[in-house]
Amino acid sequence: MEFSEKILNTPSSFIRNILKVTESEDVISFAGGLPNPISFPVEALKASANKAISENGSRLFQYSGTQGYAPLREYIAAKYRRVHGLDVHADDVLITTGSQQALELIGKVLINKGDGIVIEEPGYLGAIQAFTLSEPTFYGVTLENDGLNLEELENALQQPNVKFVYTVPNFQNPTGLTYSKEKRQQIFEILSKYDVALIEDDPYGELRFQGEPLPYIGAGKLENSILLGSFSKTVTPGMRLGFIITKNKELMQHIETAKQATDLHTNIFSQYVIYDYLANNDYTEHVQKIIALYKNQADAMLNAMEEFFPAHVDYTRPDGGMFIWATMNNGTSSLDVFHKAMEQKVAFVPGDPFYTSKTGVNTMRLNYTNATPEVIREGIKRLGSIL
Ligand code: PMP
């Protein structure tokens, strides 16, 4: 059988392959990117599932509209009006099968083969994968501690046929970094000069454990702003519920057509259940519990790094989210360290799959949300001795 170039050129999930090696019980794994399952509101979701079925009956089991369940879209719009001061309404929201699907749909709608996508370097592996299916040219822009490198951004935007810039402005995957207020403003000013869209992918924004919430870069200001959100990190990833917010009606219409072609609509059962959950539970209090849990785990990892990592290893200090990014300034390949670490039964994700243009890198992603503080300390101690 001959396969398409698009699929042959798409990186298969490096992380999934790594997770296979790291799955055994005796491995301390910082490799995953999973929310901690103790954060899932299982009982409340069970009550919501029962209630949604008894109140709506067969509607939960029927086909439904492509844009998504209207009360859920209204709930999301109202929240973004209230929390972020954005002028959004239910019609500006489309429910996707996780925000991952939003990435693929946007690629389909905006990219012709060879068109440019400006992406953070390092950037979210799943976005690289989803966009690759549209056969773009990637222009990587270095992600600095406070956001994109502005000179590289300007250069990238001058390349032919650049369609959009992809960013994760809060507690980025893989680095845990957050764009500063100043950088957000500077990026907004630069983007205002170009006919490109801006994707702000924000699945982690609510999981802030320190510092002040910051305004979005372009949402509510740029004409071609696309904001992505998700319930995966705050309620449950398994129900696969994410959303796209854009005020650009033409773009929304094309995304709807692409979604229709892909899966007709997002699981309507999940949409009814999550809507009931959101309408009848204290979501803010629930998210506060996740924040307290993750802050404790992040502190445990940072304290252990302080104690056990050698001076040539730098690492980020996230204000929220799920990841820390470490850089070995002596240039050691993180894949080499990965193999040595596996011998010591500790795992992380080597930096390579997060770049569109480099391999053999000296960086690594460490997830802290899935181990107890004691286990985190032991894992970092082992990693420190290898480094
Ligand atoms: N964007 C980013 C930056 C992510 O880290 C993830 C999850 N790893 C996603 C999108 C996809 O999330 P989901 O499809 O579960 O909403």
Automatic annotation (TrEMBL):
<keyword id="KW-0663">Pyridoxal phosphate</keyword>
<dbReference type="InterPro" id="IPR015422">
    <property type="entry name" value="PyrdxlP-dep_Trfase_small"/>
</dbReference>
<dbReference type="InterPro" id="IPR015421">
    <property type="entry name" value="PyrdxlP-dep_Trfase_major"/>
</dbReference>
<feature type="domain" description="Aminotransferase class I/classII large">
    <location>
        <begin position="42"/>
        <end position="383"/>
    </location>
</feature>
<dbReference type="InterPro" id="IPR015424">
    <property type="entry name" value="PyrdxlP-dep_Trfase"/>
</dbReference>
<dbReference type="InterPro" id="IPR050859">
    <property type="entry name" value="Class-I_PLP-dep_aminotransf"/>
</dbReference>
<keyword id="KW-0032">Aminotransferase</keyword>
<dbReference type="Pfam" id="PF00155">
    <property type="entry name" value="Aminotran_1_2"/>
</dbReference>
<dbReference type="GO" id="GO:0008483">
    <property type="term" value="F:transaminase activity"/>
</dbReference>
<keyword id="KW-0808">Transferase</keyword>
<protein>
    <submittedName>
        <fullName>PLP-dependent aminotransferase family protein</fullName>
    </submittedName>
</protein>
<dbReference type="InterPro" id="IPR004839">
    <property type="entry name" value="Aminotransferase_I/II_large"/>
</dbReference>
